[in-house]
Amino acid sequence: MNELTELHIAESFVTRSMAAISPLFLLFLIPIIPLSLLAILALIVRPRPIKIPIKSRHAFITGGSSGIGLALAHRAASEGARVSILARSGSKLEEAKKSIQLATGVEVATFSADVRDYDAVSKAIDESGPIDVLIVNQGVFTAKELVKHSPEDVKFTIDVNLVGSFNVIKAALPAMKARKDRGPASISLVSSQAGQVGVYGYAAYSASKFGLQGLAQALQQEVISDDIHVTLIFPPDTNTPGFEEEQKSRPEVTAIIAASSGSMETEEVAKKAMDGIKAGNFTVSCNFEGFLLSLATTGMSPQRSFWLAFLEVITAGPIRLIALFFQWDWYKAIEKWSKTKTK
Questions:
Q1: Which long-range contacts (CB under 8 A, 24 or more apart) does 311-318 make?
Q2: Which end of the chain is less packed: N or C, by CB atoms within 10 Å?
Q3: Which residues contact 114 (CB under 8 A, 6 or more apart)?
Q4: pTM tops 0.90
């Protein structure tokens, strides 16, 4: 047997061995890759998981006289919190106070102030006492095309939704940072699914709610060393008094697009939000469509759960495809509406 023949035999043996090993090796790799990714994510996700207690703690809720804020106040009171609510209307605050007391037996503190007025907000927060759970919930919106918005409309929306949130947090933060031996604290901002994706007719509103994302991300980095944990809540359309009024004047296209995510009751949103706050989640979605939207738009948001981080990583491509499908559907609706409008 010459050297060439021996070489052919050796090559043939290696080829057969690789053919036998390759499927087994691939089967071995299938679980190893995701398990390795999980292990890496378990090491790098920040901040770490936390639990925020509610019972016997002070919850301060802005926009607490109606809608989601009132539902959150009911839930916090029913879970044993000392509750303070702030809103502009004194009469609505009194109605809210009575409804909470009737439902839970808890008497809440009420404060009348405009979140655009930093001094008034600061005074109310000082009078309320140290805050453990701050829920920044106030919000205004008018659904109309930007060309139909007055500069005053735009300024009012951004001042209440975004600047007002800065005012509330800035006023509450010194005492929250100075607290001693009170356990982990929470600052929550109620955004909107229109704060994750721009929606026709919501230019000013979306801009004000998108701003909360940047505020929340930067704030979490600033306060994590003080054991303060930030939560960003993204409700869909919610059946509130404000939403009922908005529906009367919202553009037809806005209604078509909003219908893709459906609507929820305030109590449902409040339960999802409070569960997310207690779990210390940075992002809280309130329905399945919102969960998919959060996966699609997570970007640089903090993630406490390595399981959810794993899901975000492996679904990035498919979720992007779903997002493109929704965009296609929305733009088709706009095109169809535009054609009927010009006839």
A1: 313/37, 313/41, 314/34, 314/37
A2: C
A3: 88, 120, 121
A4: no
Residue 64 to residue 72: CA distance in whole angstroms: 8
Distance between CA atoms of 165 and 211, rounded to whole angstroms? 10
Helices (H), 199-287: 203-223, 241-247, 252-258, 266-278
Residue 209 annotated as catalytic: yes
Residue 330 C-alpha from the chain's centroid: 22
Please provide the size of the chain in residues.
Answer: 343
Active site residue 331: no
What's the CA gap between 116 and 118, in Å, rounded? Answer: 6
Binning pLDDT at 50, 70 and 90, where does residue 115 land?
very high
286: left (phi over 0), alpha (psi -120 to 50) or beta: alpha
Q: What is the pLDDT of residues 255-311, one digit of tens each?
A: 877 777 678 999 999 999 999 999 999 999 999 889 888 888 888 888 888 778 778
Cα–Cα distance measured from residue 134 to residue 233, given in angstroms and rounded to the nearest whole number: 13
Q: Which of 92, 97, 209, 272 is catalytic?
A: 209
- Concerning whether 144 is annotated as a catalytic residue, the answer is no
**Of 15 and 239, more confident:** 239
Q: In this structure, are residues 62 and 168 in contact, taking their beta carbons and an 8 Å threshold?
A: yes
Q: Whole-angstrom Cα distance, residue 182 to residue 219?
A: 20
Instruction: Identify which of 216, 174, 194, 170 has the alpha carbon closest to the alpha carbon of residue 289.
Output: 194
Q: How many CB atoms lie within 10 A of CB 305?
A: 17
What's the topology of domain 58-298?
Answer: Rossmann fold (3.40.50)
- Please name the residues in contact with 54: beta carbons below 8 A apart, sequence gap of 6 or more: 76, 79, 80, 81, 133, 274, 277, 278
Three-state DSSP class for 35?
Answer: helix
Question: Where are the domains positioned within the chain?
Answer: 58-298
The catalytically annotated residue of 186, 191, 208, 294 is 191
State the Cα–Cα distance between residues 184 and 226, nearest whole angstrom.
Answer: 8
Strand positions, DSSP E, the chain: 58-62, 82-87, 109-112, 133-136, 185-190, 228-234, 237-238, 263-264, 283-285
